[in-house]
Each structure stands twice: as structure tokens, then as C-alpha cells.
Amino acid sequence: MKMHKASLFALYAVLELASDPERQLSATDIADKYGISTHHLAKILRTLVRSGLVQAVRGAGGGYRFTGVVNRTTLLDIIELFETLESELDIPTPKGQAGEAVIEELQSITREIDDLTKAVLDTITLETALNSARLRAKLAAQE
Amino acid sequence: MTEQVTIRNAVPADFDAVTGLDFVGDPEEKPAYWRGIFDRYVTIGRDGGFFLVAEKSGEVIGFIVGEVRAWEFGSPPCGWVFALSVSPEARETGVGQLMLNEICQRLKKTGVTTVRTMVDRENKLTLSFFRSQGLRTGRYIELEKTLNDI
Predict the structure, then answer these.
(1) B59 backbone dihedrals φ, ψ, rounded to 5°
(2) What residues does B68 pair with on adjacent strands?
(3) Which of A47, A141, B61, B118 would bridge B87 by S-S if both were Cys, CB 3.0 to 4.6 A apart?
(4) Angle formed by the axes of helices A126-142 and B124-132, to 10°?
(5) Measuring CA to CA, which residue among B41, B117, B54, B49 is closest to residue B85?
(6) Looking at the complex, does the CB of residue A120 fall below 8 Å from at least one CB of chain B?
(7) Pairing label, strands B115-117, B78-86
(8) Given A115, A123, A135, which is nearest B131 (Cβ)?
(9) Cα separation of B47 and A33, whole Å?
């Protein structure tokens, strides 16, 4: 699976904001932390605002804050705002029906992979991902 | 709320409460299944097997069943959790976590170092719960096929 950059950046932003829903952060705050383009992230944040998961707070000291439900929103919910997660098989139209069975089999295999990918991403909530990340950070600090 | 919940071994008198909390599968086929489970894990008491219930104010609000299985599918001894349910009214209060923690402690005392389960991929509630408790896709892949074409 190759996740689009937009999905990855959106996960960075949402997880960062959801880790403290009271906190407001600017696009630059988040972009600097993850070493990504502020310009690209700003576009992604606009999509997240339209989805209702993030609110843009105007004025001095404004920024973005998380307004979703941290234990209900899954990683797949975020990713699907930016891509469909369907494997792309660039199959030319076959001449006649000779290759049909092979093509159908390959499509069926990619569907199996896609279904598994979605089943994983759709059962990891932001809360679970954040808890795991915190545990990971704690264990790293102890080493 | 969870401080009022106690986790204890299941007893034969829990049969109706447990079957009443089982929302998976064909209800007509389940009593025979549960009679077998009660026979093996409650009445006889199988080594390395644990059947626990969560109780609050005298009412059973959840159950969990698991055991140690060795060398199935080539796997070294490992704990399996194969049944879990929490009453819809008691969900999101930590009851599932209490039961899972307790059964994991008991499994660990038998010497196993891994706990494993299997969940229908459409059962997002249970999958999300196990994920939230730190379980991840394991090293074994479940495979199946229908037998209609043979």
C-alpha cells in the first residue's frame, strides 16, 4: 500500500490536534514538527475543516483545533477524505475474452488485499493510535 | 463505575445470564454450544482454561472465555481468548478491559507470553476494543474456502 502524501499529512495533523483538543495549533506549528510543507498542509487542513473534524479559529492566536470524537474517528475515516484505498490495476482492455479469467483473478486478489488494509485502518481509532504512540515514546525514553 | 464491578470465575448458575449476553450467531444453535463450554470450563474446570464473568450489583454484565492452546497450527503454547461480550448498557465503562486484564494475568501465570484472538472483520466494535488493548495482527493468517464446489 502506498498512502498518498495528503493522507499521511492529514493523519499527522489530526493526531497532533486530537492529542489535546483544547489546544490550538497553526499549520506552521504542525508542519515544522513533522518537517513537511506548510503550504501543502494548509490545503489539507481546509479539507479537514470541511469534514467537521477540525475547526479553524480566526483572529490573533488563532489556529486549528480538533472537534471530532477521538474514540470514534478511525484512521480510515481520515484517509478516505483524500483517497479511496482501492488498488489500481492499470489493465488495458483485453482483445476478446482470452485473458478474462486471469484478469478477474488478479482483481480478486487486489480486492482481498484492499479489504484487509481497510479492516485494519477502520478499527484503529485516533485514541488507540495516540495511546500506542504515547506508550512507544515512553518506552523509548526508558531505553 | 468499574470500581463497583467484580470479575470472578463463572459458576453453573450464570448459564442464562451468559447466553443472554451472547449476541453472535444463530441463537437456536447456541445453547448446545454454551452447555459444552460450561461443561468444559466451569463444571469440570479445564487446566489452563478460564471462564470469567463481570458482575455488578449482583447482575452478570459481561463474560470472557479463554485457554492455553499448545502446538495447534505449529504454534508454541499461547493464550487464546475465544469469547467475549459486555452488556450494551455497560459498554464503554471499562468492563471489557477489566475482564481482559484479568484473563491475561491468569494466562500469564500459566507461563504463556502471548494472547491471541480471532474476530470477524465486520465486527468493528470488538476489533476496535482489542486494538485499543494493544492487540495487533499476528503472525498467523487465517485462510478458508467454501466447500460448495467440491
Answers:
(1) -110, 135
(2) B79
(3) B61
(4) 20
(5) B54
(6) yes
(7) parallel
(8) A123
(9) 52
**A115 touches B at CB < 8 Å:** yes
Any idea which residue has 489493465 for its cell?
Answer: A91
> A111 in contact with B at a CB cutoff of 8 Å?
no
Closest A-chain CA to B132: A128
Query: What would the mean pLDDT of B101-125 be, rounded to a whole number?
Result: 95
Instruction: Give residue limits of the domains in chain B.
Output: 2-132
Q: Is the pLDDT of residue A10 over 80?
A: yes
Q: In this complex, how many residue pairs, one in chain A and one in chain B, have their CB atoms less than 8 Å apart?
A: 23
Q: Is B127 on the interface with A (CB under 8 A)?
A: yes
Instruction: List Cβ neighbours of B18 (8 Å cut-off, separation of 6 or more).
Output: B10, B34, B38, B53, B60, B63
Q: CATH topology for B2-132?
A: Aminopeptidase (3.40.630)
Contact between chains at A119 and B121 (C-beta distance less than 8 A)? yes
User: Domain A5-142 belongs to what topology?
Assistant: Arc Repressor Mutant, subunit A (1.10.10)
Mutate which of A74, A123, A127, A139 to disrupt the B interface (most B C-beta within 10 Å)? A123
442464562: which residue's cell?
A: B16
pTM score = 0.88
Kindly provide the ipTM of the predicted complex, given to two decimals.
0.82
Is the Cβ of B128 closer than 8 Å to some Cβ of chain A?
yes
pLDDT digits (tens, 9 = 90+) for A68-110: 999 999 999 999 999 998 887 777 776 667 788 888 899 899 9
By the CB < 8 Å criterion, does A117 face chain B?
no
